[in-house]
Amino acid sequence: QLQLVESGGGLVQPGGSLRLSCTSSLNSGTYAIGWFRQAPGKEREAISCIDYNSDITNYADAVKDRFTISRDSAKNTVYLQMNSLKTEDTSFYYCALRWNGCSNHRNDFVSWGQGTQVTVSS
Question: Rounded to an integer, what distance in angstroms lies between the CA atom of residue 57 and that of residue 46?
Fold first, then answer.
């Protein structure tokens, strides 16, 4: 059964760093992993995506140059390294799977993790 599991959320101070992990139950296949976040009262926002068939990545403007997405195919894991965190980054973060290439549209993703809370506060 296809399953995604996120980890790495927590409480950090502004300017701090955190690394989120998304591990898939799939050990092979052509799929992309995207990261999304949703804060209370806001729409779910696409923040990054990585294509498992290449090194193509994308980032939302709000996180560009601060967040880095990467993958370790041998571990079936995608990471989101978050640096220079701001209070505005406080949100619930989700990873999601899409067959083949990346997308920034929620409806294009077929499987979602349970999410992990990231809180940036002093």
Answer: 13
Centroid of chain to Cα 66 = 13
| pLDDT (tens digit per residue) in 9-38 | 999 999 999 999 999 998 878 899 999 999
pLDDT tens figures, 53-89: 767 899 999 999 999 999 988 899 999 999 999 999 9
Q: Quick count: other Cβ atoms within 10 Å of Cβ 79?
A: 21
- Taking the C-alpha atoms of residue 102 and residue 23, their distance in angstroms, rounded to an integer, is 17
- Rounded Cα distance between 92 and 85, Å, is 14
Q: Please give the C-alpha separations between residue 93 and each of 55, 59, 74, 115, 117, in angstroms, as whole numbers.
A: 22, 14, 23, 5, 6
Q: Is 74 exposed, middle or buried (0-12, 13-18, 19+ CB in 10 A)?
A: exposed
Q: How far apart are CA 90 and CA 73, in angstroms?
A: 28
Dihedral sign for Cα 27, 57, 22, 80, please: positive
